[in-house]
């Protein structure tokens, strides 16, 4: 894989390819549904990758084990299906809702909260919704159909959302450039695409993850402490409640156990912190993920790394930890993809720091 949908910042994805992305993902979801795996964990644009031919593909780690238990979903409430907010459960129709948010990303080129997008749709403000980088180079008729489909997917009542087969049928009609290879639409030759794999030196954390050196990863995470958590929460008056004090004490005890390599105890304390559900910490998820790896629980490690990404979508560490867990699960191709995504995000962060 060569990169995810929202990380191809060097170019504008042209309209026909956006329609192809929507169609291919709908086909993938319909296939999963046919195979008896209708629940896909936290479907979003970061799950859409491009393969060696430039074709869009849906990453397989949305189908991890506990995505089937109906309880796992993103911590970003603005994009969470209403039924999950009501009763904490995910159903097949929840995946359709999430597909609607992906359609919004394809239309606008950025994350727009569904409620805001629906207001724009009802106001028939199509031009305001569309990605300005397209510079008007899209079919208004096709865009209207995609907007309508997104609106159906985002219906409050699950039963009013379309089926995966309806998605496929609707989007199949919009594939007007089926004969044009995806890499041509991306304006990247296969040779150039192969050469686009980052050759940059890996950071110490990326290098440790590529070697699956858990001891080195542990040392780096201990040294990093919570420096990347500052953007994910702000404490309020709740900080002074007993519940908050107990939660922070649990995290402190978890940190002590983590530092001392008592990983079972660290898991117990970190789980206490997470289960209170007042404060979301990607660092805690990353640390618990590593604890699971030391305990030979690769499935649990992957799910925690995914939760770290949900809490902090452009955090390289979350991608690196997913890479290690995927390697342990013998999913080497996906592991390599995640390592590259993490390296690309880390390089982007470093460029931003130099520019400022």
Q: Can you characterise this structure?
A:
This protein has 356 residues and is mainly alpha-helical. The chain folds into 2 domains: 5-195, Transferase(Phosphotransferase), domain 1, CATH 1.10.510; 204-355, Tetratricopeptide repeat domain (Serine Threonine Protein Phosphatase 5, Tetratricopeptide repeat, Alpha Horseshoe), CATH 1.25.40.10. Helix content is 57%, strand content 2%. It has 17 helices and 2 strands. The chain has helices spanning 15-34, 82-87, 92-108, 114-122, 126-129, 140-153, 164-172, 182-185, 190-195, 204-211, 214-224, 242-259, 263-276, 282-294, 298-311, 316-328, 332-355, and strands spanning 48-50, 56-58. Strands 1-2 form a two-stranded antiparallel ribbon. A hairpin with a 5-residue loop joins strand 1 (48-50) and strand 2 (56-58). Helix 16 (316-328) packs antiparallel against helix 17 (332-355). It starts with 14 loop residues before the first helix and ends with a helix. Mean pLDDT is 82; it is low at 65-71, 191-198 and 231-239. Keywords: Kinase, Transferase. This is Serine/threonine-protein kinase BSK1.
Key phrases:
single chain; 356 residues; Transferase(Phosphotransferase), domain 1; 2 domains; 17 helices; 2 strands; 57% helix; Serine/threonine-protein kinase BSK1; kinase; transferase
């Amino acid at each position: 894989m060569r990169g995810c949908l929202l990380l191809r910042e060097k170019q504008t994805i042209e309209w026909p390819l956006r329609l192809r992305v929507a169609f291919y993902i709908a086909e993938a979801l319909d296939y999963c549904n046919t195979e008896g795996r209708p629940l896909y964990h936290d479907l979003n644009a970061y799950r859409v990758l491009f393969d060696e031919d430039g074709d869009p593909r849906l990453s397989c780690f949305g189908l991890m084990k506990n995505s089937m238990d109906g309880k796992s979903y993103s911590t970003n409430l603005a994009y969470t299906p209403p039924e999950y907010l009501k009763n904490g459960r995910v159903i097949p129709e929840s995946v359709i809702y999430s597909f609607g948010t992906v359609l919004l990303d394809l239309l606008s080129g950025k994350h727009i909260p569904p409620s805001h997008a629906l207001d724009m749709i009802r106001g028939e403000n199509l031009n305001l919704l569309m990605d300005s980088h397209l510079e008007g180079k899209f079919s208004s008729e096709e865009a209207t159909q995609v907007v309508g489909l997104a609106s159906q997917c985002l219906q409050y009542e699950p039963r009013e959302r379309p089926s995966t087969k309806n998605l496929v049928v609707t989007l199949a009609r919009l594939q007007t450039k089926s004969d044009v290879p995806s890499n041509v639409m991306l304006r990247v030759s296969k040779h150039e695409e192969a050469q686009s794999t980052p050759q940059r030196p890996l950071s110490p954390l990326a290098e440790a993850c590529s070697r699956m050196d858990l001891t080195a990863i542990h040392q780096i995470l201990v040294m990093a402490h919570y420096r990347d958590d500052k953007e994910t929460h702000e404490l309020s008056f709740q900080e002074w409640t007993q519940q908050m004090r107990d939660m922070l004490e649990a995290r402190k005890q978890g940190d002590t156990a983590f530092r001392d390599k008592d990983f079972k105890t660290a898991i117990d304390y970190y789980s206490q912190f997470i289960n209170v559900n007042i404060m979301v910490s990607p660092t805690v998820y990353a640390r618990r993920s590593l604890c699971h790896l030391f305990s030979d629980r690769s499935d649990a490690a992957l799910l925690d790394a995914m939760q770290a990404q949900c809490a902090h979508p452009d955090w390289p560490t979350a991608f690196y930890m997913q890479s290690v867990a995927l390697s342990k699960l013998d999913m080497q191709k996906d592991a390599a993809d995640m390592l590259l995504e993490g390296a690309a995000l880390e390089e982007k962060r470093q460029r931003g720091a130099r520019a400022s």
